[in-house]
Amino acid sequence: MTAPTASVSTRLQCLICDEFLVCRWTDTHGVGACRTCGAPYTIYHYSDHKRLPNKAPESLLIDGWVPLLRRYWQEHHRNVDPGAFNFPGSTYEVATQEDVGSINLWMEAHKDEIPV
After folding, report:
1. Whether the predicted model's global pTM rises above the 0.85 cut
2. Is 89 left (phi over 0), alpha (psi -120 to 50) or beta?
3. Mean pLDDT, range 58-80, rounded to an integer
4. Alpha-carbon torsion angle 82, 79, 45, 20, nearest 10
5. What distance in Å separates the CA atoms of residue 110 and residue 70, rounded to the nearest whole number?
6. To 10 degrees, the CA torsion angle through 57, 17, 81, 73?
7. Cα distance between residue 57 and residue 50, in whole Å
8. Do 63 and 86 touch, CB atoms closer than 8 A?
């Protein structure tokens, strides 16, 4: 995914829900998930093991999934990436079991649209 061209101080929109991008931490270092829809973003960037403080968040979604997940979000307003950055007993997961069931059913019904 192409990094946003805006400066870090510019208000960025989430690629999935179009809301102002505010991320919550995940259990993966440097990765946050949109607080509104759950889309994952790289927040901490590194070069030669040193953190780059002025780089904008970058989506971790494969480009081909963006239109499908946007449609799912517009239809259901449920977490689009439940369990992706979660380990058993984690306090980071905000998706419910119903979120997981909802996206699984929706993806099954739209499996012919899933990018290969």
Report:
1. no
2. left
3. 94
4. -170
5. 13
6. -160
7. 16
8. no
Tokens describing residue 6: 């805006």
**Look-up of token digits 């699984």:** 104
Q: How far does Cα 16 stand from its chain's mean position?
A: 8
Buried b (16+ CB within 10 A) or exposed e, 19-40: eebebeebebeebbbbebbbbb
d(CA 3, CA 25): 20
Q: Can you read off the two tokens belonging to residue 86?
A: 């979660």
Q: Rounded CA gap, 12 and 41, in Å? A: 12
Residue 94's pLDDT is 66
User: Tokens 């179009």 belong to which residue?
Assistant: 18
